[in-house]
Design a protein that fits this description.
Chain A is mainly alpha-helical. Chain A folds into two domains: 49 residues, Orthogonal Bundle (Arc Repressor Mutant, subunit A); 139 residues, Orthogonal Bundle (Tetracycline Repressor, domain 2). The first copy, chain A, is 71% helix and 0% strand. Chain A is globular and about 60 Å long. In chain A, 39% of the residues are buried. The N terminus of chain A is likely disordered. At the A-B interface, helix 1, helix 6, helix 7, helix 8 and helix 9 of A face helix 1, helix 6, helix 7, helix 8 and helix 9 of B. Chain A binds a DNA duplex through helix 1 and helix 3.
DNA sequence: GTCTATAAGTTGATAGAC
DNA sequence: GTCTATCAACTTATAGAC
């Protein structure tokens, strides 16, 4: 028999793993993969270094699990893009969802951005499978809207690139946004203004009449 | 007297510095500041490590000079945004210029993006001064266009954030673009298509009639 | 399952001969 | 101005007591 209890089925294990993942996110976000040290993550998690290796094996495995979780969360808002929906409403709420994520979990976005920036050495396979499949499906929805004359003929894949870039820039490069706006910190009103801007520009760009400014969801 | 010759006024010095800077760009782009090693840069430059320290003092000084040069190049295309210009033409050519830079020097863009991603520890001051001043000037131009009824009332500062994000995503996150499009490498046609998409979406988004697709400049 | 101690390897930076 | 040799510090990962 091992020392691990058989019945609780890994309660402690899972709790500790999540604790370590949560502590690792800001450390990887601020310093990148190489700049982040297991020591710093361990300190943030309130555990000895050795425990991190006990739970995740290596630094790269820990990093990989963090990223895979982010990609999953990241794809969820695309579900609302369905053929039956109104294009303007669906796109506006997708943009709003992405803007809300940028504001709520900027570190997750930054770790992801950093991985892409360096060529996606650990996430490349997932990008070429899961992400590509999902985008192909949603691009088909946009193409259907265009074919039905419900929106202007934009390139669907490139529309997604623009949407991701325009929304995530407020998380990934917020230091640039703050420098230009002269803010030491982005307020809730800054984020609302940013979201209104992106929604309005994109909807008009897609030939869709922007709806009157709607209050943010009670999330 | 020092060993350095007085008359040639640093010809060798400058040539070697530029050689090292050119070699450092792809290394920093691929590995980030911490992942890049002085050994790797020295090898790429074909020089011993010690020479890098002789010319730049420290790794951070080398990195700082590389970034400052990129920021300068990066601001140049904004010069064409002047009140007398036609908004549609000026914005289209600004976007084209940024897209061309993304395609031609992706590594410079990536090093810059990486610096922003980690909070601009070495470039922060320049962002809050030079960048902010330049954007304030160009935002005033956009405001004048709007006041004259020559384009839709978009938020000028946020318009720049969107333009930068939408254009640089093709350099910074090209691995994501390639994954979605199923390309092993982005072709010239891919970049043209991307540029046409961004120009068209933004011009329509700004209430400006997109001009017919113009051939790329002979650059 | 937890933690201390340490091994094994890497890196930025410098000394000093040429 | 160039380059070899080397140091001091740091980091990942593991061994082994508890």
């Amino acid at each position: 028999m091992k020392a691990a209890p058989a019945e609780p089925a890994g309660h402690i294990r899972q709790a500790n793993r999540e604790r370590i993942l949560a502590a690792a996110e800001p450390v990887f976000a601020r310093a990148g993969f190489n700049g982040a040290t297991m020591g710093a993550i361990a300190e943030a998690a309130g555990l000895p270094k050795a425990n991190l290796h006990y739970y995740f094996g290596s630094k790269q495995d820990l990093y990989r699990e963090l990223l895979a979780g982010t990609l999953r969360d990241w794809l969820v808002p695309m579900d609302s893009l369905v053929p039956e929906a109104d294009p303007a409403t669906a796109l506006a709420s997708y943009i709003q969802a992405k803007m809300t994520m940028s504001a709520a979990r900027p570190d997750a976005s930054r770790v992801f951005a950093n991985e892409l920036l360096h060529g996606a050495p650990v996430l490349g396979d997932l990008m070429r499978t899961e992400l590509r499949t999902m985008v192909a499906k949603k691009a088909a929805v946009v193409r259907a809207w265009i074919a039905a004359g419900r929106m202007a003929p934009v390139d669907p894949e490139h529309l997604f690139f623009t949407l991701w870039a325009a929304t995530q820039t407020y998380a990934d490069f917020d230091v640039q946004v703050r420098a230009v706006l002269g803010r030491s910190k982005l307020t809730r009103r800054d984020h609302e203004r940013a979201a209104a801007h992106v929604v309005s520009l994109v909807l008009r760009g897609c030939g869709l009449v922007p709806p009157p400014p709607q209050p943010p969801p009670p999330t």
